[in-house]
Amino acid sequence: MLKVKNITKSFKSGDTIVNAVADVTFEVPDGKFASIIGKSGSGKSTLLSLLGALDKPTSGSIEVGKEDITKLHDRKLDKYRGEKIGFVFQGYNLVPNLSALENVMLPMEFIGKGKKEQQERAEKLLTEVGLDGAKQHRKPGRLSGGEQQRVAIARALANKPTLILADEPTGNLDSQTGKMIFDLLHQLAKKENTTIIAVTHDLSIAGKTDITFKLDDGKIIK
Amino acid sequence: MGVISRGFRNAFRNVVRTVSIVVILGLSIGLSLAMLVAYQAVSTKISAVKGNVGNTVSISPAGMRGFEGGGDPLTQASLDKVAKLANVSSVNGVVSDRLTTSNSTLVSSIDAGSLGRRNSNNSGETFAPPAGGEGRPSDTGTQTTRSFTPPVTLVGTNKPTDLSSTQGGGTFKLTSGKVFDSGSTENVAIVGSNLATKNNLKVGSTFTAYSTTVSVMGIFDAGNAFSNNQVIMPLATVQTLSSQVGQFTSATATVNSISNVDSVTTATTTALGTTADVTNAAAQAQTAIAPLENIQKISMYSLFGAVGAGAVIILLTMVMIVRERRREIGVLKAIGASNIRVVLQFAVESVTFTLLASVVGIGLGIAAANPITSMLVTSSATDTGGPGRGMGGGFGQLRGALTSVQGVVDWKIVFYGLGVALIIAVIGSVLASFFITKIRPAEVMRAE
């Protein structure tokens, strides 16, 4: 269970304080697919970065399982992100000089898994997302946008995370490929019993998720 | 793939940039190495010169130089006092005398010339010229002409090959025969090459001095006419034959380092009081090595400059790379990489650049070390008039030795080079690491 309680994130802009996320509270049960929708500047990505422990809230708590991640120190946060969170970004964010296989192995290396185990899991995940054989050894520059996002999904699933956070995962893809990627993410998350929270503009995609939150001026309005 | 192999591979992500960095950094490391070689070569030379040249103190009886002036000879007791002084390595006492046709069968190889005749006339000695013969002083006393043959200089010493304590100086080179042993009391001599030629002397020949037959043991060439007209005999033999037992006409104290020459000169003056004149040539020797000391400073400053430039190059490069890869660093941190791991990856990249550059730099350094050292030494010699230029005697001969400085690139230097490269890499990584730790993983969201 993901429990978000009264989360606020403020930034100072000149003399004024801007609340990018203001007193947000919600819960997402394990294994559910939630979407966050809202217009640009509504605080979607900021909320996602707080949920992913990429940034610290000004106030409030975020419990993943029974652990309040807002109270963790930086070193523990690295471990937490590596073991419990998987990220899928709009721009894929793969390391350009590593092959698809090496990109998927990377999170496993960070939590200290053996090389053989890394390779076997990475190959399995890439096969599941539809990248077989030679494509697994290609660098991101030689893969299409859809293929790169498949690699990113495989990377996000590498350490069997509790929570996958996806920031506009289909934003850079055409609608057909976007739909395929969304279905793939949904299907794999269900298979691995992983909770997914995706930020999206696409209402057709949001309509297919288990829960939808609408964010406006940093507040959940629906 | 581990963090080390990833850092190594990252160094080749942009081949053009990598080659540029390696070449520029290689030049910097090469220059550092060349300057280090030059510094060491010049330092070694300076140490050698300080240990061997100009580290003597000359002691003469008060009021006497060579055969000029007067006063009482030095005694063995005086020399013993000097030998006991701090920093004095050894003391060599010498007895000099003149052999003329009245006490020897030897004929000088030096023609009197106008200088000889003038010196003879101005010597102040009284003599009875042959009646009406050539050489009678004129009545006016303004001009005299008389027959004069320069005497042969006889040196009694226990260091026959050390010509620095003789008036002629020069570098001893035995051309035939052999040299008598130190402490010998035999009636033997080694003679200058010109004197030997003039008197048809060969090894085994004999001549008469002080009514005693002396055997020629060897013939030497000192490189100048005055010394090549000398006879060198054992100290004890000359003291006995010339009735100067226990006496010395000059002495030379050898000091352990040129830097102690002044203090030994002062101590000797104090020890011998008014009985001796004590001088040294440290100032001239110092002047001779001054250009080398300048080169030493130049090479040291250049070394620091080149190392600093290398460090700045790699530092700016790494900072640029980190700034360029902010997003990637954010991604790595977002998916679980710790700061240490990311810093280590960039440090490996920095070390890879530097090691590649050090290979280039060591090659360049080895190739350029000697030409740069020679250029610095030659340039300095030309600019300053050259070490030893314009100095007479032994210091004039220093010039060749001081300008022949050879840089040696040994394994120690190569290891120094690698050490310098690693220092550069570490310095270069420091600021980059600082920036890395400041990048928050949330950067990856802001970059979207």
List the helices and strands and how they pair.
The complex is a heterodimer of chains A (222) and B (448).
Chain A: E1 2-13, E2 16-28, E3 33-37, H1 44-51, E4 59-64, E5 67-68, H2 74-84, E6 85-88, H3 100-110, H4 115-128, H5 145-157, E7 163-167, H6 175-192, E8 195-199, H7 203-206, E9 211-216, E10 219-220
Parallel strand pairs in A: 3-8, 3-9, 6-7, 7-8
Antiparallel strand pairs in A: 1-2, 1-4, 4-5, 9-10
Helix pairs in contact in A: 3-4, 3-5, 4-5, 5-6
Chain B: H1 3-10, H2 15-52, E1 56-61, E2 64-65, E3 68-69, E4 74-75, H3 76-83, E5 88-99, H4 113-121, E6 152-157, E7 173-177, E8 188-192, H5 193-198, E9 206-209, E10 212-221, E11 230-234, H6 235-241, E12 247-248, E13 250-255, H7 261-272, E14 276-280, H8 282-324, H9 326-334, H10 339-384, H11 393-396, H12 398-403, H13 411-438, H14 443-446
Parallel strand pairs in B: 6-11, 8-10
Antiparallel strand pairs in B: 1-13, 1-14, 2-3, 4-12, 5-6, 5-13, 7-10, 8-11, 9-10
Helix pairs in contact in B: 1-10, 2-8, 2-10, 2-13, 8-10, 8-13, 10-13
